[in-house]
Design brief:
The structure holds two protein chains of two kinds. Chain A contains ten helices and no strands. Chain A has helices at about 1-15, 25-40, 50-65, 70-75, 80-95, 95-120, 125-130, 135-170, 175-210, 225-249. The two termini of chain A are about 40 Å apart. The interface between A and B is medium-sized, with 26 and 35 residues.
């Protein structure tokens, strides 16, 4: 849990670095990722090789961002267990291993694109970008609250785990799984109770400082000529990768 | 006679679980005055303070700077009351210190550039400009407390409320906080268990017991009367 907290915070720290991609307006980055996702999902594929051009494009993006490439690649692996499961089901159904592999590759490059977006865009800017693109305020608000409260829960979980480890010292018999699960479910209930109390505290602090249901960003946004160039360039590159896919496979 | 910064008459509040936390409190805080709220855990201090910023609503009358606290005035009253919470982690919820400090002005209609300018100014005043791009969860307890204070002072409130401000602070941090509070011109209401700290930052103290004010006087007199740590 502690590692997970560290990882999630690291992504936020990466988002505050400086690079050509970091400096781009959030709306341009969101649009290019949407275009990428549409291109990837519409790629006709009978083999994972169809996604090689898209992967090359993402790796180029990772290098330009100046972020640790291997860490980002491993972060995107979060999707793999799910896609492997669906790939396996698909393989059982039609016996085509290449098609199943293409399913896994498609979901992996999609996840990598989203991870890259998160790694080069601070959350307030990302939410501001969504608002700027006309996403309903209520939806953005729900997303923001979700992120904030997830952070609260993860933070509390890490503290409780630390407290439990201090008293447990890892000497409890592993074979007593039933007792372990019983304690874990109790701890989960406490975790949600405490997270609720903390969330209430955070909400009070926000209300006391003028919050009235709408997060505002203190970063002035402007869509510059460079953003237009970035959007046009990535658009062309994504379309190129999309039309190269059948040739590649 | 000047208008009191806070004027409370017959305040009562019962939590939904039936706990009567405040049971008829009358209290006045003069403009520019500092008062320490002493009392045991669960005596009603925090519940009382939450009412001053309209974060809880009980029975009775609360006037802040002569304005009665009600739905129509809630927004303007929150502008004039700055609340520093006990746990700085509750208060620092934005990704960087600068954004957190700018949150208040921004959400009170000040534009983004001016909010950032004001935030930078107050960070410089409190001597923590070097923290502006740091994530709040990376700060020490003392730095968090200063950042929380900056987030409140940036709104230039007329009344400052502190709930257990010395929690998590080491003795040098407490000393530094006391120095800061003494320099602030606003009326201050400071809930604390630390009577030494109370003595440094306030002359007057009120003692809470079972949701009522059981005593009102100088910090020394209250500490003596309720055996609260000075002897």
């Amino acid at each position: 849990m502690r590692d997970r907290v560290g990882k999630s915070l690291r992504l936020e720290e990466w988002a505050r670095r400086d690079s050509f991609l970091h400096r781009r307006d959030a709306r341009g980055k969101i649009l290019s990722v949407l275009l990428f996702l549409i291109a990837v999902s519409s790629t006709p594929s009978s083999s994972p090789a169809a996604f090689v051009p898209a992967a090359f494009l993402l790796i180029f993006g990772l290098i330009v961002s100046g972020l640790p490439v291997l860490e980002l690649l491993s972060r995107a692996c979060v999707i793999v267990p799910f896609s492997v499961f669906f790939g396996f089901v698909s393989w059982l159904e039609n016996g085509n291993a290449l098609f199943a592999g293409a399913l896994v590759a498609r979901s992996y490059v999609s996840a990598l694109a989203v991870v890259l977006l998160m790694g080069v865009t601070p959350l307030p800017e990302l939410f501001g970008g969504l608002r700027g693109m006309g996403v309903p305020a209520v939806l953005v608000m729900v997303l923001q609250s979700l992120v904030r409260y997830l952070r609260v829960i993860v933070d509390h979980g890490a503290r409780m785990r630390r407290a439990a480890l201090c008293r447990d010292a890892g000497v409890l018999p592993r074979r007593n799984r039933r007792s372990l699960w019983r304690r874990a479910s109790g701890a989960l209930a406490v975790l949600f109770g405490r997270s609720y109390a903390r969330a209430e505290g955070v909400h009070r602090a926000m209300v006391a400082r003028g919050f009235r249901g709408d997060f505002l960003s203190s970063r002035p946004t402007s869509f510059t000529a460079q953003d237009w160039l970035y959007l046009a360039g990535t658009g062309l590159a994504i379309l190129g990768a999309r039309y190269l896919a059948p040739v590649w496979q | 006679m000047s208008i009191p910064a806070i004027d409370v008459r017959g305040l009562r509040f019962t939590y939904p679980d039936g706990t009567a936390a405040v049971r008829g409190v009358d209290f006045q805080l003069a403009a520019g005055e500092s008062v320490a709220l002493l009392g045991a855990n669960g005596s009603g201090k925090t519940t009382f303070l939450l009412h001053m910023a309209g974060l809880l609503r009980g029975e009775g009358e609360i006037r802040i700077g002569g304005v009665t606290l009600e739905d129509e005035t809630l927004s303007s009253i929150r502008r004039s009351v700055g609340y520093v919470f006990q746990d700085s982690d509750d208060q620092l919820f934005m990704p960087t210190v600068l954004e957190d400090v700018a949150f208040g002005p921004l959400h009170r209609g000040v534009d983004a550039i001016e909010s950032i300018r004001r935030a930078r100014e107050i960070l410089a005043t409190l001597g923590i400009s070097h923290l502006e791009n740091r994530a709040p969860y990376h700060l020490s307890a003392g730095e968090k407390k200063r950042a929380s204070l900056a987030g409140v002072l940036v709104m230039n409130p007329e009344v400052l409320i502190f709930d257990e401000p010395t929690t998590f602070l080491d003795p040098p941090g407490q000393k530094e906080l006391a120095r800061l509070l003494i320099e602030l011109p606003q009326a201050k209401l400071i809930a604390t268990h630390d009577v030494y700290f109370a003595k440094k930052v306030a002359r007057r103290a009120v003692f809470f017991a079972a949701g009522r004010i059981a005593g009102d006087g100088t910090v020394e007199a209250i500490a003596d009367r309720f055996h609260w740590g000075l002897s």
